């Protein structure tokens, strides 16, 4: 069943309040350069990170889609009950440090980013990721690169040189 993402603003804000997250609400028409992209009727909930300068953004498009963005990762969610539940759970997992963004770059270019549940950073192996094609793995072996595991609590962040 389709839902209007803007109608979920209060529910998302309640979750943020329950998690004691500090946030701001921005809407179309504000004289703020960071939010000029918002179209009429759209809202951006900006969650302030107490551990670093990187904010989390929750875009709610009026009868459009949801977008969740953090650091170098973002994802779009359809405006239906099933995808909304995924967004809600992803948001909760990020803010509880149960998931982090995985950002893989070669020395030539950005390759890939995803939201991952990584329980043990010590045993993390980017090669085990089925999302990376053989072409990307070969490029990383040839020119080198890095993997960033970027958590909401930035003190947990890890960068692994390849």
Structure characterization notes:
- The chain is an alpha+beta fold and 162 residues long.
- 22% of the residues lie in helices and 30% in strands.
- The strands form 2 sheets. A 5-stranded antiparallel beta sheet has the order 1-2-3-4-5, with helices on one face.
Distance separating the two termini = 44 Å
The spatial strand order of the largest sheet comes to 1-2-3-4-5
The number of strands is 9
Describe the largest sheet: 5 strands, antiparallel
- C-alpha Rg, in Å? 17 Å
Overall mean pLDDT stands at: 92
Discrete helix count: 3
The proportion of residues in beta strands is 25-35%
Write the layout of secondary structure elements.
Layout: H1 9-18, E1 23-27, E2 43-47, E3 56-60, E4 66-70, E5 73-77, H2 81-95, E6 100-106, E7 110-116, H3 134-143, E8 145-150, E9 158-161
Antiparallel strand pairs: 1-2, 2-3, 3-4, 4-5, 6-7, 6-8, 8-9
Short description:
The protein has 162 residues and is α+β, with helices and mostly antiparallel strands. The protein has helices at residues 9-18, 81-95, 134-143; strands at residues 23-27, 43-47, 56-60, 66-70, 73-77, 100-106, 110-116, 145-150, 158-161.
What labels would you give this structure?
162 residues, alpha+beta, 5-stranded antiparallel sheet, 4-stranded antiparallel sheet, 9 strands, globular
């Amino acid at each position: 069943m389709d839902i209007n993402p803007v109608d979920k603003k209060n529910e998302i804000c309640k979750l943020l309040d329950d998690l004691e997250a500090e946030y701001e609400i921005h809407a179309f028409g504000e004289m703020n350069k960071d939010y000029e992209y918002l179209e009429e009727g759209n809202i951006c909930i900006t969650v302030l990170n107490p551990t670093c300068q990187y904010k989390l953004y929750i875009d709610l498009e009026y009868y459009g889609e949801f977008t969740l963005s953090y650091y170098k990762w973002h994802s779009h969610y359809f405006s239906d009950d099933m995808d909304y539940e995924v967004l809600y759970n992803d948001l909760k997992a990020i803010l509880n440090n149960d998931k982090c963004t995985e950002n893989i770059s070669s020395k030539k270019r950005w390759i890939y980013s995803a939201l991952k549940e990584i329980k043990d950073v010590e045993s993390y192996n980017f090669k085990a990721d089925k999302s990376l094609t053989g072409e990307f793995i070969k490029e990383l072996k040839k020119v080198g690169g890095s993997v960033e595991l970027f958590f909401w609590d930035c003190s947990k962040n890890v960068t692994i040189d390849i």
